[in-house]
Amino acid sequence: MPKILFEVNYSIYPGKREGYLQLISELKSYIKEMTQKDYFVYEDLKKKNNFSEIIFFESNEEFDNFEDMQDDKIKELMSKVINNYVMEKKVNYITKEEV
Is the terminal CB of the chain with fewer CB neighbours within 10 Å at N or C? Predict the structure, then answer.
């Protein structure tokens, strides 16, 4: 069964970087605690303040069930990232399947 990579890409406001880094650290830890999934966040080396959140799933079924695994706190933290830190609330979602 092919694995799934889910990626969320966005740029943040430069003046809000420290607050973003604190919030994303909290989100990563909480997702790991609640879902047992590793949640990675990377910054583009060539474009400062451009980030990718990445999570791997063992199957399409696990990916489809991820939203059901999210409690209100996860949804609240994700919403804060987008509403308070993401430039113009522009987010790009990418889903890839292993070949």
Answer: C
